[in-house]
Automatic annotation (TrEMBL):
Protein name per its UniProtKB record: Diguanylate cyclase
Cleaved signal peptide residues: none
GO-annotated cellular components: membrane
Pfam families reported for this sequence: GAF_2, HATPase_c, HisKA_3
Segments forming domain Histidine kinase/HSP90-like ATPase: 458-548
Coiled-coil ranges per UniProt: none
Source species of the chain: Mycobacterium timonense
Domain of life of the organism encoding this protein: Bacteria
Keywords assigned: Kinase, Transferase, Two-component regulatory system
Matching InterPro entries: GAF (IPR003018), GAF-like_dom_sf (IPR029016), HATPase_C_sf (IPR036890), HATPase_dom (IPR003594), Sensor_HK_TwoCompSys (IPR050482), Sig_transdc_His_kin_sub3_dim/P (IPR011712)
Keyword Repeat (UniProt): no
Domain GAF intervals: 30-177, 199-348
Molecular function GO labels: phosphorelay sensor kinase activity; protein dimerization activity
């Protein structure tokens, strides 16, 4: 070998310097800080201008690349980090070190990307933990006159041995710390759902937010069956009920087929899945291509009630197997919390129904009877009235009393009607709109006029689906600040969803959803019209007859 070898830092410093840097690299338990200390120590011992540590997964794929020596401007111009090609692709498991005076002469060399500084002398040593290569430590010189000496190699190998211990300790600490974070998130979700300490946050949205934050992901979505009452084996479509991160607004409310989708496979199997090739069968995500993801079934009492999908960007490292247990426990706790929260909501609804029944009885047994008595007294007074003006007033008052009695009877009928009779339609519509718009900066108005108990179960299901589709479209595409959902029940059922957004786009990217709403109206013998009012925005006008089910 040519070049200067006697000028290495280690040759002049000896074992005391090596001992000091070995002690220093194990001074902390933060993994990222430990990696930087290792690189810094290696550069100090060998006087290398550049140093890097590449971490690999169980399959040998490069998952992280930590480097030192380049200024921020150079790093910015280079762009993306290495992906493990060329010399970085070589396995050092059976090699104590790889040292050369000119790395460009090695058969595996593939050159440097644009704006990358030139490098000549090269030294690489593996960092092995329990007979597995955790990663490789790379050191380079720029000056052609500088090469790595035998003592540099010895120092780097000794440092790699000590680094393995420090990294192992840091990994154990990192796993424990991560486990605590997941447990705290599970506890937070359970507390929030059961105590309703965050009533403005939808449960599934809260789960998606925590899952994304814990995995350093680009986006997280929660999918649930489109038909919540269907047996799991009969579910053919999942709906994105919660979304956070990149394109969250675009993906919310989208439908994903169970057959042929990664999410559907997890829903069917009930087993978590790590993949580097997740594709969203959703138009808003097709441009993103494949990306690493982890998918978790929401399982409670041996039943899958949904799927959490957490996806990283294409340039982020894939998930490793260590996530499976943590994520599975989190998903299980979240699913159980959802079921318990649902049971609590059911109990609350039963309490409300019982209270409504009591109020209805009180109105019938006390209020109406007293109004009847008052009316009879007025009729007796009317018979003795001598003034026409007084008689007219008494007649008008009697008519008003009769109107009040009829209104109270209507109220009693609605209060006492079981959910099956009207599908608890008023509550269903209010809940759908609240769920979809609860976390949006949007002024929302819901108006329901007429006897909602006249809406049969079949029409109620269609109307709820159309409301969901129309509101979801407005949230995804319109950029509206105001949204009105108005339902009128008289001779016909009339639903209007009106927003003040940008109107119907020229390319009409919502064609599929609009066609579905129109098809539902046609099935019932009704109509669906989507227009842009003169004042702007979009109006969905959906009409159907009040047919008996």
């Amino acid at each position: 070998m040519s070049g200067v070898r006697e000028g290495s830092a280690f040759a002049g410093l000896g074992s005391e310097q090596l001992l000091r840097v070995i002690v220093e690299i194990g001074a902390g338990l933060d993994l990222d800080a430990t990696l930087h200390r290792i690189i810094g120590a290696a550069r100090e011992l060998t006087s290398a201008q550049y140093g890097a540590l590449a971490v690999r997964d169980h399959d040998g794929n490069l998952i992280s690349f930590t480097h030192e020596g380049m200024d921020a401007e150079t790093v910015r111009h280079i762009g993306h980090l290495p992906v493990g090609k060329g010399l970085l692709s070589l396995s050092l498991l059976d090699t104590p070190a790889l040292r050369m005076d000119d790395l460009t002469t090695h058969p595996a060399a593939v050159g440097f990307p644009e704006h990358h500084p030139p490098m000549r002398a090269f030294l690489a040593v593996p960092i092995t933990i329990r007979d597995t290569v955790f990663g490789n430590l790379y050191l380079t010189h720029v000056d052609p006159a500088r090469v790595f000496s035998d003592s540099d190699e010895v120092a780097a190998r000794a440092l790699a041995f000590a680094a393995a211990v420090a990294i192992d300790n840091a990994q154990v600490f990192e796993r424990e710390r991560t486990s605590v974070k997941w447990m705290e998130a599970s506890r937070e979700i359970t507390t929030a759902l059961l105590s309703r300490t965050e009533p403005h946050r939808r449960p599934l949205q809260l789960i998606a937010e925590r899952a994304r934050a814990l995995t350093d992901a680009e986006q997280a979505i929660v999918l649930v069956p489109e038909d919540a009452d269907a047996p799991a084996g009969d579910v053919d479509t999942l709906v994105v009920s919660a979304a956070v991160g990149v394109l969250a607004t675009d993906v919310l409310g989208q439908r994903v087929p169970v057959q042929g989708s990664t999410s559907g496979a997890v829903f069917r199997s009930g087993e978590p899945l790590i993949t580097e090739k997740l594709r969203y069968p959703i138009q808003a995500f097709t441009g993103g291509g494949q990306r690493p993801a982890i998918l978790m079934p929401l399982r409670a009492h041996d039943e899958v009630v949904g799927v959490i999908v957490v996806a990283r960007g294409a340039d982020q490292p894939p998930f490793n197997e260590s996530y499976l247990d943590l994520v599975s426990d989190f998903a299980t706790h979240a699913a159980i919390a959802l079921v318990l929260a649902s049971a609590r909501e059911d109990a609350r609804q039963l309490t409300i129904l019982a209270e409504r029944e009591r109020i209805a009885h009180d109105l019938h047994d006390h209020v109406i009877q007293r109004l009847f008595a008052a009316g009879m007294d007025l009729q007796g007074t009317l018979a003795r009235a001598r003034s026409l003006e007084v008689a007219d007033r008494l007649n008008r008052t009697l008519d008003d009393l009769q109107t009040i009695i009829e209104e109270i009877r209507t109220t009693i009928f609605e209060l006492k009607s079981p959910a099956a009779a009207g599908g608890d339609f008023r509550h269903r519509i209010q809940r759908v709109v609240a769920d979809l718009t609860g976390d949006r900066d949007l002024v929302t108005t819901v108006r329901l006029d007429g006897p909602m108990t006249a809406v049969g179960p079949g029409l109620a299901d269609h109307a709820e689906a159309v409301t969901t589709e129309a509101v979801s479209n407005a949230l995804r595409h319109s950029g509206a600040s105001r949204l009105t959902v108005a339902i009128s029940v008289a001779d016909m059922f009339i639903l209007d969803v009106i927003d003040n957004g940008c109107g119907i786009p020229a390319d009409n990217a919502r064609r599929s959803g609009l066609a579905t709403m129109a098809r539902r109206a046609e099935q019932l013998g009704g109509t669906c019209e989507i227009t842009s009012p003169p004042e702007g925005g979009t109006r969905v006008h959906w009409i159907a007859p009040l047919l008996e089910d």
